Amino acid sequence: MKKILLTAFAAATVTTVASAQNSAVNSAILNHKQGLLDKAQADINKATEHKKTKDKAKTWFYRGVIYQDMIGNPIYSKFTDDNTPTVVLESYDKAVELDGQNGEYAKLVPERKEMLYGQVLNQAVEFHNNQDWDNAIEKYKLASKVNPKDTTAVLYAAYASTAKQDYPQAITFYDQLIDMGHKTEDVYKAKVQLQQATEASDEEVMNTLSAALKEHPNSVFLMQEELKYFLKNDRGDEAMAKLENAIKADPNNASLYAVLGNLQEKKGNLDAATESYKKAIEADPKSFDAYFNLAVLEYNKGSDINNRAAKMDYATYQKKGKTLEAQAKKHYEASLPYFQKALEVQPDDQATIQNLVRVYTRLDRKAEAAKYSKMLNK
């Protein structure tokens, strides 16, 4: 008789303990609904440690909810720290792991993670604005873990790393963006510039440029950068062949003609460069690069002639100097309409304005030189 009574008592005790632990989850939920987040936190922590509730998706989902709602709360944020967003993310991930993708609580996680992403990103931006680069980068990394498909956090992590002058880390973030399919011209441009700043090998930079040009075949910046490396590595003929083939495929592309002209100019073929720049203008009457490069080409011709005159001895100058200076003046005058057209296309371009000041000064047209000098001071 006593044995039966003891067994019944033991069973009742087990039931009571299990019920108590299940009630810890329910109590946590109730306290959360009532806004008593500290009590909810204490209850849910007990539930995550007890063998009866620690493997339930419900427990971990509500652990994430309670901790998440403490973030930024005017009263209960004191119960959080820098690790709290990680606790929230880990809680939601565990809930999904226990529940399966189609489970009752797993289905609630995406909306909660979206909210968490915004919270963490806001923290990152606050650190960023205060130029606390290390903390900003860590928060950007966490935001990316919360939402691996969103590129915003990764992009700003690259910006923060660049501001910190941690260029290798910035490059890894740009690589991450490219792997995510965010293959904009700006991303590739930034990566190339960072590789150049870190003195990456020519091969590494050229590989980046090659991949970039597959995505952006008409990018003037990328083409010009690739040309620099072709020329640096004595591969000018390859560069020329690539450009000529590109022009055959797209004969109305002004950018291609502008880059071809730039290459021809570097190889010393100034007449061919002039024709290429003019073809660029025919294809696009608003091609700033073509106007500017034509102007500089004419200006440099004038400067070269002037330099020859300046190096003459007195007797030779008396015979030929004035003739050379007259020739130089013609080239300076020829550059003016191109600089003017370039300025029409980009009215605030400081390089164009500076060059107009130089040309008018060379031509001794002081009023015009003063006019453009004032534009520089604005």
What do you see in this structure?
With 378 residues, the chain is an all-alpha fold. It folds into 4 domains: 18-130, Serine Threonine Protein Phosphatase 5, Tetratricopeptide repeat; 151-212; 217-285, Serine Threonine Protein Phosphatase 5, Tetratricopeptide repeat (Alpha Horseshoe); 293-378, Serine Threonine Protein Phosphatase 5, Tetratricopeptide repeat. Helices cover 78% and strands 0% of the residues. It contains 18 helices and no strands. The protein has helices at residues 2-33, 37-49, 57-70, 84-99, 109-129, 133-146, 152-163, 167-179, 185-197, 202-215, 220-232, 236-249, 254-266, 270-283, 288-310, 314-345, 350-362, 366-376. The N and C termini lie far apart (104 Å). 34% of the residues are buried. Keywords: Repeat, Signal, TPR repeat. TPR repeats lie at residues 254-287. InterPro entries: TPR-like_helical_dom_sf (IPR011990), TPR_rpt (IPR019734), Ycf3 (IPR050498).
Largest sheet: none
Q: What is the number of independent domains? A: 4
**Relative strand content:** under 5%
* Number of H/I helices: 18
In N-to-C order, the SSE pattern is HHHHHHHHHHHHHHHHHH
Distance between the termini: 104 Å
Helix content: over 70%
CATH architecture verdict of the largest domain:
Alpha Horseshoe
Quickly name the level 1 CATH class of the largest domain.
Answer: Mainly Alpha
Number of strands: 0
Q: So what's the overall shape?
A: elongated
Any idea what the CATH superfamily of the largest domain is called? Tetratricopeptide repeat domain
